[in-house]
Amino acid sequence: MSVAPKVGFVSLGCPKALVDSERILTQLRTEGYAISPSYDGADLVVVNTCGFIDSAVEESLDAIGEALAKNGKVIVTGCLGAKGDVVRAAHPRVLAVTGPHALDEVMSAVHQHLPQPVEETANPFISLVPAQGIKLTPRHYAYLKISEGCNHRCTFCIIPSMRGDLVSRPIGQVMQEAENLVKAGVKELLVISQDTSAYGVDVRYRTGFWGGKPLKSKMTDLARALGELGVWVRLHYVYPYPHVDEVIPLMAEGKVLPYLDVPFQHASRRILKLMKRPAAAEANLERIRGWRAICPELTIRSTFIAGFPGETEADFQELLDFLTEAELDRVGCFAYSPVEGAKANELPDAVPDEVREERRGRLMQLQEKISARRLKSKVGKTLRVLVDEVKADGSALARSSADAPEIDGVVYIESAGDLKPGEFAEVKITRADTHDLWAQPVTSSAKEALNKSQIRRKHA
After folding, report:
1. Which residues are registered as beta bridge partners of 333?
2. Other CB atoms within 10 A of residue 195 CB
3. How far apart are CA 358 and CA 185, in angstroms?
4. Cα-atom radius of gyration of the chain, to the nearest Å?
5. Nearest to residue 371, comparing CAs of 406, 333, 336?
6. Which end of the chain has fewer CB atoms within 10 angstroms, the N or the C?
7. Looking at the DSSP assignment, which residues form a beta bridge with residue 428?
8. What distance in Å separates the CA atoms of residue 415 and residue 127, rounded to the nearest whole number?
9. pLDDT tens digit sequence for 108-157
């Protein structure tokens, strides 16, 4: 029996790119290729790149260069691959370059430079891929990508030029993948896309089928169906369209995690117009209050840009005032960075680098106070957490419903006992800082006392 050809793999970028990597790896294994953990052991290397901002481009080009130096045979895919001239100018020796979500093109390049093992010689066990496919995340959580591309034309963004317009996956296909993941032991589904709220717009909310029942290709219907699978469902990249209001009751009912990742980007109407973003910042404040009235446990995370071209001190103060009023739980902020090909580069009144950084620092300083205050309010409460890691010293890292993996805070469990990764646990919060929580597990006797207390309050 001949040895299966081996492919090395480097995956860079956002969760959407990670899902692309998982699909390529799944197809490689399905066709009998082995996956090499090192450059030395690989017959060729695939590098899935990011190309959104300059630092990501540099990281991707460095990764391609390292793969070429240590292996010599490299296929490039991903967002930077959409700029094939940039890749080839820096690394003319690459075997092939494809854009993002280009499974067929990547496999065609692999077949050309590393022929697929024939059925008679391929190890049959290599082709036994699990129904959920190959995953690069821990076994207990997974990203569920529901669409590709985006119909927005934000002036700071070049993603539509790389990933194209919105293309929604059939809802039956999405639900089948989700069901396979849950059957494989996944406890948390992280729903991702470039614009989750727009799911189904391109197909006019076409009706599909799951479990023999009709189901509309719409975010609210999808969230409701996913909520029936009995696992955590976390929604990312949710633009604040009016129909988002329909998801909040599902969160209050416990069907979907009370967590919204909403990319507000700014609060000044003038700057939002320059960005070509929805500009109803005042309405957003009203809606946030309405959301929290329905679901008080709601966690809202967002990202903002400081120092966008034309931003005045007054515009920036509007953003700070918005944050003070909104009291968002999780916030990230980037100093504006010109991206090659973005329309924002043509706007007048560029903000000096040092002012951009100073404003970013001021925003994060304000947000740290807000975050610390909101986290401190959780001290003494009992939360349900999902354990990610148990350490040798007996402690554990976990996440509550307020914490998405790798981008939010964590819950440090100081005495994990017999807890294991992928398990849910009840913990009592003992202290907090600006980003994270510390906790102790709730014992069986404490749980019983807590349940009795809740019953008494319910009937009081």
Report:
1. 304
2. 20
3. 45
4. 24
5. 333
6. C
7. 382, 440
8. 41
9. 999 999 998 765 444 554 455 676 778 888 999 999 999 999 999 999 98
